Write a sequence for this structure.
């Protein structure tokens, strides 16, 4: 029993303990201990077993991964060690005191007891656990890992025995196939599961005969997951049911067995820690400090063979978090906004295709009830956020496409008229803006405003053949080179350049193609890969073209990002210029093929609008 | 070696002279081995609340303690006792709110002492500014059985003072107060002061002081920490 008010008050003022009643807490903190760690003291080692929930009472704790990269910094009231506690697996992050720290330890039994006492307390941990599997804190549905279907994971081959088998027969099969679990089936239907642990607990320990039918010791009607469910869901099931093996079912037939270890492997390194850290900061300077970890994150992803698509999404997720936090802080200072607003990310942030460092492109969309006297508020908000982003390394947009510019801080009706004009009179400047503003995405604020604007744009653009043709023509401004010759870039004109602008001659042409296809199909999607997929669906391009373009984008962008990383490692600012000598012969060959795909698609587009 | 034997002899002699069972048992219990690491010993961090600073004139109002085992504070073995006789009526309100349940009913000084002595068997006493609390405890023990309290003691104030002395750092008034020392070790402020929160604060401080004087993972032997008296 913990009677000391000071300690109870401490716990009751920090989530998730604040979900508990005082009486529950008194009883539930059984075995609570406090330990002091001087700066540099190690609380958890990677690979050790952990049977305690750790709560920072004072000081600060850092978590480091196996490469010793910082993954999180925890302060007063924050918990750690619960992943290993929940999963029963060895510790994955080293916990070390970055300041002298007093740390509470709560024994596993008490932790379990508290989780069973209050569902909301339990949810905090099981969800935090699942949350770590989600790329984005808010857009769960869109997250990369929530999007990883169980069917896409290799998992383990299904090993089955008939329900008539004996325990000895089952064990022999498990040994032969060297698996730790097997499914028991009757007429191809799964009726049970048997694991190593079951054999130990239910057969050997009670000294049952090895001729016992397997049906007597298996877990009957095991929890299964459909091959279409995602990793986060599967993990949640395993956590809540406290099981370590999950059969994956497709059309009633088992297709694989996933273990907790399989799922945890998917998790890899997560930017979720960084996003969480950003959302915790209470001023712009600290956000800027946290944002300095972004290059490391990119490097980790590049070395982990992440795709450029994944990297782009992760970087954008971080930028979004920074933007969102800055907006929240601005609102804390300025008070509630006078009318509803939507903060728009544009350009590469809008498309979720940011790389190492991008400049900022953003705008404010306001409700139509907006009055001139409200503008002072939004101007201050915009300035705060733009300055904050600049401090985080997203330098001011050279073209001044930022919310702090009055022109890009307007009510919905004005935005509609902007798009109306750009589409009706597609002169060069209008097309330039169209290209930036068509890639708009809500970061914070009122989503309906964005939906309404997008619907409006989709209607205008789809019907307007002339506008699309002008967009197509405009897109030809940037063309990929023919290939490479020795250390030079080979161009149609026969000119030799000694470096290649991978952004304007590689990425942008594909981005523009995707944008036009998607608009022609009447859809206002923003991510290039999604645009290409939807263009295939709406019949704008063939499946083959869509896939080739996606592959080309992936290849070009990945080489661009790897090169940026090389530059940063050498202390240079990241650029888009790749000298051919950086490329391996194989990369050159692949790039040449990718450029070919783009050129062919560009030509086809011109043809389509009768412009060739 | 000789010292240990002498202490043992002293204890035995005292226990023979003593007819108060709690004290006899304490004297006859095996004292901690001072050559071992402090972590191998159980410690009891104690704080007393008193009506004043003079042990002959003032009374103990309450006592609070926490246990340190394996170098870790064991929160749910904390104890707090309010002493009835020592509690002036007008101060009773300050006692309320220390605890979550209203256990602050108050018991006699002798009963409180009996419980404390029971907890001290085989353990080392930890105090911040030991001489003051020891004086009160000795006074109380004398009243109960005519004998002083004989337990190995660690004084966090003395430890900090000798650390500052070693560094030749001038000690300004107030620098050795519990709150001030804790601050130097990065420990938070204690909000509500009472015997138990201060006992806990003392225990935390001891762990901090030890952590800072142990370099390279070597664990301090208990005798390096004990107060000489």
């Amino acid at each position: 029993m913990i009677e000391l008010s000071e300690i109870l008050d401490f716990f009751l003022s920090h989530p998730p303990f604040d979900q508990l009643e005082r009486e529950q807490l008194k009883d539930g903190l059984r075995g609570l201990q406090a330990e002091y760690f001087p700066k540099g003291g190690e609380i958890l080692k990677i690979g050790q077993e952990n049977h305690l929930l750790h709560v920072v009472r004072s000081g600060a704790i850092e978590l480091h991964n196996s490469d010793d990269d910082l993954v999180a910094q925890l302060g007063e009231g924050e918990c750690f060690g619960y992943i290993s506690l929940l999963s029963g697996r060895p510790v994955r992050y080293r916990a070390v005191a970055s300041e002298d720290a007093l740390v509470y330890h709560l024994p596993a039994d008490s932790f379990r007891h508290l989780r069973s006492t209050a569902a909301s307390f339990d949810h905090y941990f099981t969800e935090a656990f699942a949350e770590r599997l989600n790329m984005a804190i808010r857009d769960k549905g869109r997250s990369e890992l929530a999007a990883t279907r169980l069917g896409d994971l290799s998992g383990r081959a299904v090993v089955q025995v008939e329900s008539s088998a004996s325990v000895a027969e089952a064990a022999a099969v498990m040994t032969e196939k060297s698996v730790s679990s097997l499914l028991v089936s009757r007429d191809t239907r799964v009726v049970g599961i048997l694991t190593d642990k079951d054999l130990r607990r239910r057969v050997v320990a009670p000294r049952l005969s090895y001729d016992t039918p397997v049906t007597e010791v298996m877990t009957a009607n095991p929890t299964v997951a459909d091959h279409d469910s995602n990793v986060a869901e599967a993990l949640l099931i395993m956590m809540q049911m406290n099981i370590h093996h999950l059969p994956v079912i497709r059309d009633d037939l088992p297709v694989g067995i996933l273990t907790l270890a399989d799922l945890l492997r998917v998790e890899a390194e997560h930017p979720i820690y960084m996003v969480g850290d950003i959302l915790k900061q209470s001023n712009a300077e600290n956000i800027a400090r946290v944002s300095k970890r972004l290059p490391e994150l990119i490097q980790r992803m590049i070395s982990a063979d992440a795709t450029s698509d994944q990297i782009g999404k992760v970087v954008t997720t971080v930028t979004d978090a920074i933007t969102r936090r800055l907006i929240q802080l601005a609102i804390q200072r300025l008070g509630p906004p006078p009318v509803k607003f939507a903060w728009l990310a544009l350009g590469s942030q809008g498309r979720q295709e940011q790389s190492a460092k991008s400049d900022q492109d953003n705008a404010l969309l306001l409700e139509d009830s907006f009055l001139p006297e409200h503008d002072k508020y939004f101007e201050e908000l915009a300035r705060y956020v733009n300055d904050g982003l600049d401090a985080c390394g997203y330098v001011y947009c050279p073209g001044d496409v930022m919310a702090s510019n009055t022109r890009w801080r307007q009510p919905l009706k004005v935005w509609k008229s902007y798009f109306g004009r750009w589409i009706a009179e597609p002169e060069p400047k209008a097309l330039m803006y169209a290209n930036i503003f068509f890639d708009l995405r809500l970061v914070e604020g009122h989503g309906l405003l964005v939906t309404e604007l997008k619907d409006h744009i989709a209607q205008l653009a789809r019907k307007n053949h002339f506008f699309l043709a002008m967009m197509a023509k405009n897109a030809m401004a940037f063309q990929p080179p023919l290939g490479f010759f020795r250390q030079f870039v080979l161009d149609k004109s026969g000119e030799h350049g000694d470096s290649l602008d991978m952004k304007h001659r590689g990425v942008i042409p594909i981005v523009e193609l995707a944008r036009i296809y998607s608009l022609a199909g009447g859809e206002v999607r923003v991510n290039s890969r999604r645009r290409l997929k939807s263009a295939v669906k709406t019949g704008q391009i063939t499946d083959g073209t869509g896939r080739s373009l996606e592959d080309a984008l992936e290849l070009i962008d990945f080489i661009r990002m790897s090169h940026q990383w090389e530059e940063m490692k050498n202390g240079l600012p990241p650029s888009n210029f790749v000298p051919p000598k950086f490329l391996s012969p194989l990369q050159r060959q692949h790039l040449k093929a990718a450029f070919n795909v783009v050129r062919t698609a560009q030509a086809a587009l011109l043809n389509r609008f009768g412009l060739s | 070696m000789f010292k240990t034997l002498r202490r043992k002899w002293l204890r035995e002699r005292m226990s023979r002279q003593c007819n108060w069972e709690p004290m006899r048992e304490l004297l006859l219990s095996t004292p901690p081995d001072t050559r071992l690491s402090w972590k191998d010993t159980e410690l009891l961090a104690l704080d007393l609340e008193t009506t004043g600073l003079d042990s002959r004139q003032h009374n103990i109002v309450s006592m609070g303690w926490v246990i340190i085992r394996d170098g870790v504070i064991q929160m749910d073995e904390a104890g707090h006792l309010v002493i009835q006789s020592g509690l002036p009526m007008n101060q009773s309100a300050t006692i309320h709110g220390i605890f979550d349940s209203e256990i602050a009913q108050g018991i006699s000084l002798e009963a409180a002492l009996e419980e404390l002595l029971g907890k001290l068997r085989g353990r080392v006493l930890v105090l911040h500014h030991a001489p003051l609390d020891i004086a009160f405890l000795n006074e109380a023990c004398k009243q109960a059985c005519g004998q002083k309290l004989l337990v190995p003691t660690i004084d966090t104030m003395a430890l900090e003072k000798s650390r500052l002395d070693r560094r030749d750092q001038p000690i300004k008034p107030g620098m050795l107060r519990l709150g001030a020392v804790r601050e130097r070790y990065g420990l938070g402020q204690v909000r509500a002061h009472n015997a138990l929160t201060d006992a806990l604060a003392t225990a935390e401080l001891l762990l901090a002081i030890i952590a800072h004087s142990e370099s390279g993972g070597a664990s301090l032997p208990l005798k390096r920490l004990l107060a000489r008296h």
